[in-house]
Amino acid sequence: MTTGQQEAPRVSGASSPVMSVIWRLIALAFIDAIAIVFAYSFWSGGLALAAVVLLVVTAAINVVFLVPGLYPLRWISPGVFLLMLMVVYPVMFTVYAAFTNYSAQHILSKQQVVERFERQFYTPEDQASLTWRAFRSPADEFLIWLEDPTGRQLIGDPQRGVIPADDYDAEFGQIDQADGLPTRIDDYVKLSRIESFRHLTALSRLDIRDEAAQLRIVSLDRAELGIQRYTYDPARDVLTDHLTDTEYESRRGFFVAEDGLRAPGPGFVDVIGPDNFLRVVHDHRIRDAFFGLFVWNFAFAFLSVAFTFALGLALALVFNDQRLPLKGIFRTLAIIPYTIPGFISILVWAGLLNPTFGPINAFLQEFFGISPPWFADGTLAKSAVLMVNLWLGYPYMLIVTLGALQSIPGDLYEAAEIDGANVFQRFKTITLPLLLVAVAPLLIGAFAFNFNNFAIIELLTAGGPANPNAVTPAGQTDILISYSYRLAFASGRGQDYAFAAAISVFIFAIVAMITLVNFRISRRLENMI
């Protein structure tokens, strides 16, 4: 290149930042649109706090991706957004639901329930019927011409309600001498009786009403003008029934009269304070069963982790031995239970342990003359649960411990062997301490998982056998999560979501405390190495 010549600008280099901004704006627009849709859904459902939090998080994401100085935050903002969406929001909603009466009877918001009441109309007994004729537009829309016995004429319009014909702002066609009605109203043409009969289904479904009245087509020649039955006064928080002159006050998710009679309609979600938590503490039937099951729940989780870890470690020590032939085949066979879905394995084991038709009892009866009632005796049922959970869980521990064993330096074993340490001493002083440091967090996670292992209890024993001394639906193999399920959903009261949320908060607190203790123990193990 000669002196004084300048290199031509590169088009691709100049357009790259522009395209980057365009793609960024398109992605943000897509995220904003989704957030707005969800926020509107939350707001209309009465979850104003969730809607506000979602919009604030979305606005923060927009700021991070549009302000150049916040560039480092762009890499963590998607993770923070997913954390808020998948973790923080469900936790917040569960805690919120625990302080409400959210259930199958209280699933709608108060505004939705009030709207349902205000859409109800009634026809007074002394009101005379109306005659009607239908008018149809080219767009297949309808108007209804009404006339009462006194000769008063009205027009029913789905858009404007029921309006006197003299006040209806429209152009009327010439009068039909046969019935004295106009042949058309604007673009709407009068239908004959036969044509009205053909469209009677569509005409009867028309929603023609205003604040005070609603039109109902009863038959081919008769219609009624209903009166709004319920009105709601937000200042007094009172629902008035104009048919019976009864006022209903808002009480704990229902509209209730002074005599305790509820308004005939659904309930709504209402904040009731800590009643659900106090119910667990004050109701001795629930409290006694709750804390009684906690002991078995803790034992079930601890023994499940201990047994699976012991068996997995034993097999890992065998498969890690270089002298073992066909190690790959043995390892593959050992993890077969891990490849089969747990739901299927549990149901298969339920069939194997069947006292009458199961092959396990058939074998025991044939060779030992016994047939254990696995699901009728509490101790045997708990043993069956632990045995099946051992089958399901040991392959995971095998894989984890096998990998941890292979990471331990071989020089340590050679030095210990030179010092005269035998196999058990090497395992106690080298293998186990180093192994626990590596797998302790995984053992804590396995304990938390088994503490809430609902599937194996429900599919294998369904919480049974029943406890003859219990006054609540608590079986002898129930754990806290399955007991909570029976209290909230299977106790004959319907789906009590709020009570289930309160129980979930209790379980979360218990698991959190146990996990903190386990983490402290694992930290001590690290300090001992």
* Net shape: elongated
Task: Compute the average pLDDT.
Answer: 86
- CATH homologous superfamily descriptor of the largest domain: MetI-like
Can you count the beta strands? Answer: 13
The CATH first-level class of the largest domain comes to: Mainly Alpha
Rg calc:
36 Å
CATH topology of the largest domain: MetI-like fold
- Taken together, the total number of domains comes to 4
The class by helix and strand makeup works out as: alpha+beta
Largest sheet properties: 6 strands, antiparallel
Unreliable residue runs: 1-14
Helical content stands at 40-55%
Number of DSSP helical runs: 18
Largest sheet, order of strands side by side? 5-4-3-2-7-6
Q: Determine the strand fraction and express it as a percent band.
A: 5-15%
CATH architecture of the largest domain: Orthogonal Bundle
Terminal residue distance:
67 Å
How would you sum up this structure in a few lines?
The protein is built from 18 helices and 13 strands.
Q: What report would you give on this structure?
A:
- The protein has 529 residues and is an alpha+beta fold.
- It folds into four domains: 14-98, Methane Monooxygenase Hydroxylase, Chain G, domain 1 (Up-down Bundle); 111-116 and 231-273, no CATH class; 123-228, Beta Barrel (Periplasmic binding protein-like II), CATH 2.40.430; 279-338 and 394-528, MetI-like (MetI-like fold).
- Helix content is 54%, strand content 11%.
- The protein contains 18 helices and 13 strands.
- It has helices spanning 11-44, 48-66, 77-98, 110-118, 193-198, 200-204, 275-282, 284-319, 327-334, 336-339, 342-352, 359-367, 378-406, 410-418, 423-451, 454-461, 480-489, 497-528; strands at residues 121-122, 131-136, 142-147, 153-157, 161-164, 184-185, 188-190, 213-217, 223-228, 230-233, 238-241, 246-251, 254-256.
- The longest helix has 36 residues, at 284-319.
- Residues 1-14 have low confidence and may be disordered.
